[in-house]
Write a structure and sequence with these properties.
Blueprint: H1 7-31, H2 41-66, H3 69-103, E1 126-127, E2 138-142, E3 149-152, E4 169-176, E5 180-185, E6 194-196, E7 201-209, E8 213-219, E9 224-229, E10 233-237, H4 238-242, E11 247-249, E12 275-282, E13 285-291, E14 297-304, E15 306-307, E16 310-311, E17 314-316
Antiparallel strand pairs: 1-17, 2-7, 2-10, 3-4, 4-5, 6-7, 7-8, 8-9, 11-17, 12-13, 13-14, 15-16
Helix pairs in contact: 1-2, 1-3
Length: 319
């Protein structure tokens, strides 16, 4: 038992705990164990480190009891080198992150005092894509409740995590009146697809998706794009988005017919109606509830909501 309390053995316990704690934490980060877990992500990463350190401590007791002193000393030397490597990597990541936040300028901080700088994007309820706009995969909406800053990135290296990239700009959010959120800083070129912060609506059209990044259109007028961390918000594909709008309607220049089945040659619905509420989406077709001016149901039917990469309807986000 005396071997367990010799200086070499005590140093072994220390190195095993620290080194394997770091190993567990970095393993959780590399494998993405905490991605998309919100506030629980930090606890998950810490849990990996604590479990790894505990198992390593048990193993170190066995090594200290059975191994010769010379072997324990050599193990300590190796663990000491690994410990220094972990310290260097951690310090480098912290310095890099601080530089990233600094280079992002005022966008990484709330800007008190003068009126906030916010781009004047579209604020109407019904939106139709511009003629030159891309159809996209759907929409990305930032999680400004849990993330006060949304960072924009240039063309990223998809083989590296988001934390290894330096943002080019950002949007900063602030909480008002204890519950409502607004934008306190935004780049002057920001014109998202939908911006109505009094209803906490901020949608960017999605151009492409990667495991860690989402390519979004940050200016719908000139189709400027940027990349964001896909775990800093919610991805809403077109069907999910349309099923949650208030109503849809036919554009004046694209008249359609409500049909009894999702087929171009199906019979027409002749019921008079004012509004159409989305109920179900089946490929290029949408089942709708037909409503009168009082939003009372008067029938149902099917409409074609897209044709390849062309949106055939207008939608209203709000009543």
């Amino acid at each position: 038992m005396k071997k367990l309390f010799k200086p070499a053995s005590l140093l072994l316990y220390f190195f095993m705990i620290i080194v394997f704690f770091f190993a567990g934490v970095y393993y959780a980060g590399i494998t993405g164990a905490a991605e998309g877990q919100g506030l629980a992500g930090g606890a998950i990463v810490l849990g990996y480190g604590v479990i790894s350190a505990f198992v390593a401590l048990l193993v170190s007791f066995i090594i200290a009891y059975y191994a010769e002193r010379e072997l324990i000393v050599r193990i300590n030397q190796v663990l000491g080198i690994v410990f220094l490597i972990f310290i260097a990597i951690t310090a480098y990541r912290l310095i890099t992150r601080e530089r990233s936040e600094t280079t992002s300028g005022p966008s990484s901080q709330l800007t008190p005092g003068p009126a906030p700088t916010v781009a004047t994007g579209p604020k109407v309820d019904i939106q139709m894509p511009d003629e030159n706009s891309e159809f996209g995969l759907g929409f990305f909406t930032p999680d400004f409740i849990n993330h006060s800053v949304l960072y924009f990135y240039g063309m990223p290296n998809f083989e590296k995590p988001v934390s290894d990239h330096t943002p080019s700009d950002s949007i900063t959010f602030q909480q008002l009146d204890g519950h409502r959120f607004d934008i306190s800083y935004a780049p002057p070129w920001l014109v998202p697809e939908h911006l109505k912060m009094d209803y906490e609506i901020l949608h960017f059209k999605i151009k492409s998706i990667n495991r860690d990044f989402v390519e979004v259109i940050v200016n719908k007028t000139d189709q400027r794009n940027a990349y964001v961390n896909r775990h800093a918000g919610q991805i809403i594909y077109w069907p999910d988005f349309l099923l949650n709008v208030h109503s849809v309607e036919f554009p004046p220049n694209q008249p359609q017919t409500v049909r009894i089945k999702p087929l171009n040659y199906a019979g027409q619905v002749t019921t008079d109606f004012v509004f159409m509420k989305p109920l179900r989406i089946q490929e290029d077709w949408m089942e709708v509830e037909l409503q009168d001016q009082n939003f009372q149901k008067v029938g149902d039917g099917w409409i074609q909501w897209r044709n390849n990469q062309e949106l055939l309807i207008e939608y209203s986000l709000l009543s």
